[in-house]
Amino acid sequence: NPTTGLPIVGGPATNGFPDTNATNTLPPTKLSPEEEQRQLEQAKKLLIEYSVTVQREARAGNPRQQHNLAVLYTLGIGVPLDFKRAHHWFHKAAMQGLPESQFNLAIAYQGGMGVRKDVVTAYKFYSLAAIRGLPIAAKARDHIAQYMSRIQIETAQRMARGFHQGIERWEEMKDLEKAGQSSVNRILGFGPDPNGSGGNDGN
């Protein structure tokens, strides 16, 4: 249900929540209400425990964990229920080009969840998520367009282009920073030695 903001599922290696919904080739087993409740409580406990890691990595700048922290705020798990804080973290991740966060921001603006309702901004973020490869975003964008004027759509498209160009510039700067740091590391002898001599030999 994207209206609550789905987490990016996966273990720490994929910068997501622990995968409590792993599937196999066997058909699902019907659980008793008591067993379903027990499993829900267990999953909630795992998320609360993992929320400490999510918060730490989100504050360190990890966009996927920023997205996941926003989701925790929409659910009130491990952190207080707070749609405004959720918007804050979704926006941080969206600024780094994460389509799931862009999609959830669009939902927030469309429904007025933690922000003022704004269909133009909703269209903008649906468009951005679609550009970044989230298939459901294009359908949501086209749906909301039915209730917008031509001027509103053109404004949203112009905003989306500007926002996307900003993301691309940010990504280019990050790539340049990484390339520059790699060069410094090589000069200092911290980087891998292409000749396999193990870096600085002390001479």
List the helices and strands and how they pair.
Elements: H1 33-59, H2 63-75, H3 83-95, H4 99-111, H5 119-131, H6 135-145, H7 150-188
Helix pairs in contact: 1-2, 2-3, 3-4, 4-5, 5-6, 5-7
User: In angstroms, what is the radius of gyration?
Assistant: 21 Å
Oligomerization? single chain
How many DSSP H or I helices?
A: 7
**Relative strand content:** under 5%
| Average pLDDT level | 80
Number of strands: 0
The topology string of helices and strands comes to HHHHHHH
Largest sheet: number of strands, sense, barrel closure: none
Stretches where pLDDT is under 50 for at least 5 consecutive residues are 1-6, 9-26, 196-203
Structural class based on helices, strands and sheet pairing: mainly alpha
Tertiary shape: flat
End-to-end Cα distance: 61 Å
Helix content: 55-70%
Offer a concise description of the structure.
64% of the residues lie in helices and 0% in strands.
Can you walk me through this structure?
- It is a single chain.
- The protein has 203 residues and is an all-alpha fold.
- It contains 7 helices and no strands.
- Helix 2 (63-75) packs antiparallel against helix 3 (83-95), helix 3 packs across helix 4 and helix 4 (99-111) runs antiparallel to helix 5 (119-131).
- The radius of gyration is 21 Å and the shape is flat.
- The N and C termini lie far apart (61 Å).
- Residues 1-6, 9-26 and 196-203 have low confidence and may be disordered.
